[in-house]
Design brief:
- With about 180 residues, the protein is of the alpha+beta class.
- The chain has six helices and nine strands; from the N terminus they run E-E-H-E-E-E-E-H-H-H-E-E-H-E-H.
- The strands form three sheets. The chain has a three-stranded mixed sheet, with no helix packed on it.
- The mean pLDDT is about 80.
């Protein structure tokens, strides 16, 4: 085999690939390691000595070797995916849809999504992160918040009183997602 070869598969559409384009060891690797993602039929007389490859609903890129790769594409154009998400989740509008509609490939889509995400994270940081007061109960060398009298009655000899207090933090789930 000479030169690089990329197979483009659309979801659930079978594609014939000439036998000489994919070495048998790569076909075995594909069948063994990507079972469930790609259906592989080896060359034989029934399929005119061609590989028959079918994407099983997965979208992405598989680099089998330096020379052979498989690009798995969605059934629908990328610009339709966000329209379907709007409809499925009853969203009023995807504000980022106009930026993504021009994507021609999955790689471009991911690049744009990363760019949009990073811009939105920076905007959230500029506006200020969410904060919350979390409750704490600790033995402290001083009194902070409310004194836990039930603990004080149980152990009146205790040097450090048990206190219940709230502390402000930015380490909340909303910020951890960012």
């Amino acid at each position: 085999m000479t030169g690089s070869y990329q197979v483009e598969l659309k979801e659930y559409k079978q594609k014939k690939v000439p036998r000489e384009k994919i070495p048998e060891e790569l076909g075995l690797h594909l069948q063994r390691d990507y079972r469930g993602k790609i259906d592989v039929q080896f060359p034989n007389l029934g399929n005119e000595n061609n590989w028959l490859l079918t994407s099983q609903g997965w979208v992405g890129h598989i680099q089998l070797s330096e020379d052979v790769s498989i690009k798995m594409l969605p059934r629908v154009p990328l610009e339709n995916i966000f329209g379907m998400l709007e409809y499925a989740y009853d969203l009023k509008s995807f504000e980022l849809r106009s930026e993504i509609d021009q994507c021609g490939s999955i790689r471009e889509l991911f690049d744009r999504l990363v760019k949009i995400l990073s811009k939105r994270v920076l905007l959230r940081i500029k506006r200020g992160l969410y904060g919350d007061y979390l409750p704490y109960t600790e033995s402290l060398p001083y009194i902070r918040g409310r004194l836990d009298t039930s603990e004080l009655i149980k152990k009146p000899w205790g040097i450090k009183p048990v206190c219940n207090y709230h502390d402000h933090t930015r380490d909340v789930e909303e910020n951890q997602i960012l």
